[in-house]
Specification:
With about 290 residues, this protein is α/β, with parallel strands linked by helices. The chain is built from 14 helices and eight strands. An eight-stranded parallel sheet has the order 7-6-5-4-3-2-1-8.
């Protein structure tokens, strides 16, 4: 199976479930993996932002990578989230982690340091030369503080042969359109924004790495498949059905919203690691009301 075949469709940026004491809830994790696979998504992204990667470190991170690989047991492609704002620390992570069973790495653009565009290019060029697996780059200026421009993304796509896709969460159709128009044929544009995935696919994206599919994997992955088949009139009702839910997922931080929904479904506890905090009682009531509507 080619990289395009593996990563066309819906991937989930999966949550990491915790007990009340903050330890990983492995039993709930296994149940969630079964739930996501049953929902017919195309792949899973482990320890991205939604997985609370910022507060999972060292051996515990390896435990998560290994656990998901063992429980998925080859049924879906897997992506390992390995990014940061220290290029050489990421290189050391590439050397340290056992990523057997994984198909790609998702690596977010450096945050906080705010390098210029040349710095962003050189960062990804360095990762490209050292990576053990193909890389999906990730542009999410709402979290990193700056955007990877379309010009820089295209330069990476042309010169960094191990970087085969970008997860684009800039919300900028100027960026999306320029990437689609000028990218190499084998470079993939993947949506990083649930609410604009339908129009992004219409513009040339090949799928989505989703947060809402943590909670509603069946419907949302079906919406994406319909879009990829050009059946936008059939996809639109599913797109519209989840707009308010998607808004609620992020209204008080992520993955707080997703954990609230999954807790109400009985799939994991409503527990996150600080500084992330659970949603307010008022917002939780709103979530309960939205769940009744769908």
């Amino acid at each position: 199976m080619t990289l395009r075949e593996k990563f066309t469709g819906t991937g989930i940026a999966i949550v990491t479930p915790f007990h009340e004491d903050g330890k990983i809830d492995w039993e709930s994790f296994e149940n969630l993996i079964g739930f996501w696979i049953k929902g017919k998504v195309e792949y899973l992204v482990v320890l991205g932002t939604t997985g609370e990667s910022a507060t999972i470190h060292g051996a515990e991170k390896q435990d998560v990578f290994s656990f998901v690989k063992d429980k998925v047991a080859g049924r879906l492609p897997l992506v390992a989230g390995i990014g940061g704002n220290d290029t050489h620390e990421i290189i050391e992570a590439f050397k340290t982690f056992d990523l057997s069973g994984y198909d790609a790495i998702l690596s977010v653009s450096p945050y906080y340091n705010k390098p210029n565009q040349e710095g962003l290019f050189q960062h990804y060029k360095t990762l490209d030369a050292a990576t053990p697996l193909p890389i999906i780059m990730y542009n999410v200026p709402g979290r990193t503080g700056q955007s990877v421009t379309a010009e820089t993304t295209l330069r990476i796509a042309r010169e960094c042969k191990n970087i085969f896709a970008t997860k684009e969460a800039s919300g900028s159709f100027d960026i999306f359109n320029k990437i689609v128009k000028e990218k190499p044929a084998d470079f993939m544009l993947i949506s990083g924004d649930d609410p604009i995935t339908l129009p992004m696919i219409a513009a040339g994206a090949e799928g989505l790495i989703s947060v809402v599919a943590n909670v509603y994997p069946g419907d949302y992955s079906e919406m994406v498949r319909l879009c990829l088949q050009g059946k936008f009139a059939e996809a639109l009702p599913l797109h519209s059905k989840y707009i308010d839910i998607i808004t609620s997922l992020f209204a008080e931080g992520s993955p707080s919203g997703a954990k609230a929904y999954l807790s109400e479904m009985g799939l994991c506890k409503n527990t996150v690691r600080q500084p992330v905090w659970p949603v307010s009682d008022k917002h939780l009531q709103k979530i309960k009301e939205l769940m009744k509507e769908v």
